[in-house]
Amino acid sequence: MATEPKPRPLPRCPVCGRRASAEARPFCSPRCAQVDLGRWLSGAYAIPATEEEKAEEDEDRG
């Protein structure tokens, strides 16, 4: 007889570290989802570029 696999535990919320909820996954709550969205929109998750990379991009454009 095959047994059913155990459900995986919910991951941790990337904002506060609490267990994620099924309704707001991967976050624990709609509030943490909004905090994450605000970080994306404000550029907090942007990868910083060096001056050399910026100069190369400008040369490539025209």
From TrEMBL:
| Cofactor(s) required for function per UniProt | Zn(2+)
UniProt-annotated binding residues for Zn(2+): 13, 16, 28, 32
Note on how the cofactor is bound = Binds 1 zinc ion.
User: Which keywords label this protein?
Assistant: Metal-binding, Zinc
Metal-binding: is it a keyword of this entry? yes
GO MF annotation: an example: zinc ion binding
Instruction: Summarize subunit and interaction data from the UniProt record for this chain.
Output: Interacts with GyrB.
Q: What does this protein do?
A: Inhibits all the catalytic activities of DNA gyrase by preventing its interaction with DNA. Acts by binding directly to the C-terminal domain of GyrB, which probably disrupts DNA binding by the gyrase.
By sequence similarity, the record places it as follows: Belongs to the DNA gyrase inhibitor YacG family.
Q: What is this protein called?
A: DNA gyrase inhibitor YacG
Name of the gene this protein is made from: yacG
